[in-house]
Amino acid sequence: MRNVNKLPDFPLHIGVMQSVFDFTNKTQGRDKLYRTAQYVSKLLGWGMQELEADPEIIQKLAKLESHASTTRKFFRLGKSLESLQAARKTMALVDPVLRTTLTISHLNKAGFLFIDHYLWLGRIGIAKVDKRWDYISARFYLGSILLSILRDLYAVYIALKRLEQREQYNEKKVYLPLWVQCLKENPEATLDLLRNICDFPIPGSKLGYFPKHNGLVGICGLVSSLIGAYQVAYPQIKLKP
Fold first, then answer.
1. Distance of alpha carbon 79 from alpha carbon 120, whole angstroms
2. How far apart are CA 44 and CA 22, in angstroms?
3. Is residue 70 within 8 Å of 123, Cβ to Cβ?
4. Phi, psi (5° rounding) for residue 68?
5. Alpha-carbon distance 76 to 82, whole Å?
6. Distance between CA atoms of 87 and 95, rounded to whole angstroms?
7. Nearest in space to 202 (alpha carbons), one of 42, 12, 29
8. What is the DSSP letter of 224?
9. pLDDT tens, 129-140?
10. What keywords does the record list, in alphabetical order (predicted)?
């Protein structure tokens, strides 16, 4: 006899749809989607130029990239205050390395975002913005990335020391496999480090530290966007604090 009180199992596709809804319902999730579209457009635009494709298609991809970038700036309105709040919290951390790297990184990010709000006003035609502000913003962004990389390396270093004690490491053992094992066992630090390394050429190329290569920026931006989206979808693998 059929049990009428038993609830039916939800089909797999309903669970997937719910996950997608939850992801897009977050401001960070929407930002990652637009960021992915932005760098996919840049990468495709570069590829089309290399293949000497139809200029009209290249122009449309450039417009899509610009629209995605402008939309992301809108999503980030007010985020500079959140970065200042995050800096206030990290100033209370006991670990001096974490306290220094995270606090200064958040302050740099706040500066980048504050100028980014101003740049958005220029994008939509409300204010006339001097181009030099774009470079100042990139310097703040680069500073935040560099400090985040230092913080990630510190997390890997701490994990490595713990692994050495657990494995009773001595100088006769090969060190490289230990590093590989450490990175595998600490996906939070590994993914965050990879994401920040991929982000580095974005402001770096704008400031002249890298050649201005849309292909490089496009692929690095795409990889970091996908990692960022994964971290938003699965916050348990996000490096803390």
1. 13
2. 29
3. yes
4. -65, -40
5. 10
6. 14
7. 42
8. H
9. 998 999 999 999
10. Membrane, Peroxisome, Peroxisome biogenesis
